Amino acid sequence: MTDQTTPVSEDDLHAYVDGYLDTDRQREVEAWLGANPDAAAMVADWQRQNADIRGLFAGRAEPRPDDAAIVSRARAAAQRGPAPGLPRFWQAAAAVVLFIGGAFAGQLAPSILPGERQPALQSAAALSDQSHSAFLIYASDVRHPVEVGADEQQHLAAWLGKRLDTPLHIPDLTAVGLKLVGGRLVPVSGKAGALLMYEDDAGERVTILLGRNEENRETSFRYASDAGLETFYWIDGPIGYAVTGEISRERLQQVADECYRQFET
Q1: I need a surface site. Which of 68, 76, 119, 262 has the fewest CB within 10 A?
Q2: Do 128 and 103 belong to one domain?
Q3: Coil/strand/helix, residue 232
Q4: Total domain count for the chain?
């Protein structure tokens, strides 16, 4: 049984799903899950959603070495059985629904007990908060929303990529009804980050924040909502991404999905 001095928190469960716990803590969490079938079923859903999403993009990126272990743990947890009435997002056949399910699952999970945040989770949450702030500051600016306009896209990509210390491909979002406004250099967690801005024909704007991920770890897709401002965010290797806009969750999901596909190329 898990030691009462080290309670299992929601962050522990996310870290368990993402494969970041050390061996001892993993055993503690697994023991706790064995005594809490509702939480075990929820964790199994998260793991299946992540495995399905990775499967959708299997041809675009090398699989993580711990994929087999994650899927194995998901199946083992599933054998303990889901709680009656628990949402089963993974059964959705459409890739769009899988994406929404994986991101929204983190918002459905209750906070089990207070605990310390894992570094990667802390970094992802900070990215979401900073993306929210950057959108509020720059998206409403009429005259100077960006430093470099869409007419200098090649220069913009080279400049921001150099500051991020990674090759930067600026997504083409015309397929989802958005055109590039431009971008700017912004601070992200005290280091150089990039903000790309897009807008639709009605003038509704969407921003993409990119920042360095010092822990060099990955997270599954997560979703945050605050007073009508929606954000999808994730960490993929050395870079964290957050897509923010005052549009519907479904619409923003389409944008985030397209960004993910293009950043992976």
Answers
A1: 68
A2: no
A3: strand
A4: 2
